[in-house]
Structures
1.
Amino acid sequence: MSSERRKKSIVFAITLIILILFMVPFYMLVVNSFKSTADFIRNPFALPGYLSFENFVTAIDRMNFFKSLANTAFITVTAVVINMILSSMTGYLFARKKWRINKIIFMAFLASMVAPFQVYMIPLVRIYAGILGFSNNLLMVAYVAVGLNIPFAVFLYSGFVEGIPRELDEAALIDGCSFTKTFFNIIMPLLKPIIITVTVFVAMGVWNDFLMSSLFLTKTDTKTLAISIKTFLTNHSAEYAPMMAGLLLSVLPVLIFYLIGQKYIIEGVIAGSVKG
């Protein structure tokens, strides 16, 4: 076996092992959705003896699934749309206008990406839920989600715009386009790969968020899917099988969305993180 072929075989073997490790949790989620809790505890890796959809019926009922789904979708779509507009415009401004204040703000954005949410979790809850009284408000959760995701999005948009020739801006300026009109008419259509990439990342993060949402949303009619899953966990027992069914129902929409946009993700991340 040649050296080159041996290297490819090793890379393939390592990739296959990593794939299996990542797929095992999803496999357990799927197979245990069709088993009873007793069977799950007995052997979580075994295939179900027969297919039963009772767990899904229980999950939909106990989780108030469709209401939770609507809440999650509202927060996610709102956060994604606002984030896309604000971050793409800010990234374009940072890439084209090399003002000193822009550099300072951009560095502040990068620094904020390092700090975990737990650092400013208490001040956020104290100000917005406590002082301002915005607890159990879906718009407030979307607002906070936008703020948490803007630094990462601006970083990618700014890097992507750096790879777009400035001659396009100059030509638009000669034709009488303003800075804003140039962005929306010329630049934004070129941002499709990075828009899809950022949208996928932000949507997945907001959709699956538990900690931040649980701090603001406590009423039954405002809970998201991630919070509703906790219905199956009590101080004295845990209904694992229905919980697995609920988790599977919760991740399917965002999984489908990810699969649709996956071909743009690598292209967008590479182009957005490496300035041209």
2.
Amino acid sequence: MSAAPRFAASGLAEPPSRHAARPRDLLIVDDHPIVLHGFRLLAEEAGIARVHEARDIVGAYRAFHRHRPAVVVTDLSFRDDGLSGLSLIRRIRALEPEARILALSMHRDPVIVARVLDCGALGFVVKDAPAASFLDALEAVTNGRSYLPHAIAIEVAMLNAGARDRPLANLSSREMQILVLIGKGKPYDEIAEILTLNYRSVVNATAALRCKLAVGSMAELMQIAAAQAGAVS
């Protein structure tokens, strides 16, 4: 992970260009109707002509494939599907490598934010940020610039230096998804169904999690998983 100057941050972003582009259309992905409505209003305030909506990752991928919006704004957590927003970001970037994606979440864990960036999102903003911050983030991402709140940018930049002391930083995106679902009390078969994996893959991944996190029992893993699940709910 590169240092903080890679990211534009609230209050530290490059000054907007006189010719800063506005997205011609936008896809907003969230499973809460009130949140969708609020972000639609903000997008329209920013002068965006067409705003598409989706409430789950399947609908979002289909909407992206059909409309090819200039920018995608997506939540990370969808009901009981853990961090499925990460897989949506990866799938969109696989379909369109130049896709410009802004991720939203209520949590601020730099490990998760780093995963968001690794999956291909260009920016990240917390849901409880002021509307002006969302509009700043949207403008930055629309114009191909990275965006992170300043405090989170610093924490993400420091992850590499402290990776040995933060074993969660060494987990893959899939392992993070499984960990969150374990924390939500999901059994192996349900996790397999949610993530479209076979049962044995989930069992093996759980064993790998115990090894990477250096825990001796499933009970210890559940404690870590519950804490992580609370951070992303």
3.
Amino acid sequence: MARLRAEDAEKRAASGHGPDFLEAFARGLRVIGAFGREKKHMTLSDVARATDLPKPSVRRALYTLTCLGLAENDGRSFRLTPRIMELASAYLGSNMVSTVVQPACESIADRTEQSCFAAVLDGYDIVMIAHSLHGRPDVLAPTIGLRRPAFNTAAGRAILSQVPDKVLDAWLDKLEPKVMTDFTVTDKKALRAEILQVRKQGYAITAQEMRRGYHAVAVPLRRYDGATIAAVCVAAWVEDSAVGSFAEKYLSALKEEVEALQPQLL
């Protein structure tokens, strides 16, 4: 059995992972996660730099992924294949939320004539699990599995507004907010106040904080027992609706569809 490098053993000990933790499997997942919209094709060296893993480990991981049909190599660089979607399908197929929420997103998009998506909180990001496009998909098009920062998105704030104060404070304490546009709120005290306001009013609205040119409104998505499990969001271009009337224009349809979902989410 291969032994861990001393450095990796120290990292495992520091992380708190037990003896059953599979280091090779974790490295393989890191290699998969290195690919993305801006890194569709990467050489072995590119992946090693992106993951901060030794080249021999990256080489074995890429070789294994290629053998399984999850990646392919043109002789110089690697890229993931469509088969990698089987990993996402496993989650979506086993997660009732995605199946139930997709039709609701489509209905909201039809009623508002804007793009609609549902997202869950994963650490400091939101991850989209359902979506329906409308209007100008060239910029507003979300995709299943797309990650965005939670702190400056309406969906993220809608979910965060439902967590206990101690959990929220701990989350904000470790948050490292980055400026995305001239409108991005990065002051943690201001963010906390904004999230508490969302809790009070029942919805979150952001104006050009994630990307210039559009704003969004989101509401928490609750399970049958009242626990918040996601958020559903409508995004629109600035010229389609002034910020002042944004919530008034789209909130009614959003709330009606989301409230109808609650009894279905067991």
4.
Amino acid sequence: MARPRVALASRPVPESPTVFTEMSLRLVRDLVTEAVAACCDLPALARGKVVLVKPNLVRPDPRNPCAVVTDERVLLAVVGLLRDAGAARVLVGDNPGYGLSLFEALACMADFTRRVAAAGGEIVSFDHCGSEAVPNPGAFVFDPVRLPRALLDADLLVNVPKMKTHVHTLVTLGVKNLYGLVCDDERMFCHRNDINAKVVDVLRLARPRLTVLDGLWAVQGQAPLSGSAVPDMNVIAAGTDVCAVDTVAADLMGIGAHEVAMLRLARQEGLGETDLAAIEVVGADPAGLRRAFARPVIGCAGAYDAVRVHEGGACMGCLSALRHALDKLAGEGAFAGREPVTLYVGVPMPERRSLLRRDGELWCFGACAAPLAYETHGQAPAAHCVPGCPPHILDFYKAYKARDGSGKQTPKPFSGRPSKT
């Protein structure tokens, strides 16, 4: 069996994902053309087909935070190449984030939608095109999977992810980008350690025939909400095996595929190649592109003085959601002038007191921590509970910002069950 091929194209790209001219559009198209041509026969793949292009448009204002979404120049290049290759239709769709439809997200981005249309693409919102429950035999946790009609009606899926680290999953590349196919009402379950199994279950049904990874401006550290841009990565990676593309991209970030849980599971399930030695890398020399990306920190204890976090038996779902919220609050200066609060996350100890000391008001984060509110009921004001398994990343963020500006909370009466804040 032939080794999967991943093509790398790289040279300096001037301008930025948010402010660019025709000059860098042409340069990026040349890079994408070079990478795609080196890994597949695009006309043979796309001619006469209805193609769904799946970029990463999570909260898709490209200015905030910078570089967190697929570079528009890469997306336009992919759409144009598909039309030139004879695709009958090129659809562009994504679910940009929990509670936000694509049409709502793009409401203030008229120039973006106009340019996509001019390139030959049709934007589709998964929330509005309908969906269907698809059986998923052999799934770990996700059977059936409700998938958007735009995907099921398309002949070909082309994946256009972004090169980023991720607080929850270490990296978010091609395989993780498929999570944007999941409908809102199925998005939050198994969003704990088992999110990796859930994403691999999506891959079983949604196998991209081509992945074109945008690594022009990458993102490192506390991504996706609070990471920092790597503005000179200047690389496009392309291949027909999404796991192979992710393996090569992660290596360029200084991360081994064996460190990425979803890639380990995908390899175990025979869904793609994750052994770097078994992948044929062509084009630009990876040795000249490799960086040591700042890695995300998921732990919350001791991160910020204003929120004294005690971690019990917490899984990555709660830790990731809470760390996202803390980083976002800190980045906005929301801790300034506030009295410290204590926050407990995870399962309390079963036979011992889990919290001997607390500073200020007590918050219990997630379903596992809720019993601690019973233990502390009656000890000064009742605890505030942020429910969920796990809570959404914005739940504590919103609740904390809703506190009285003096830094004090007005606790809600404790009713015998966790109360929404």
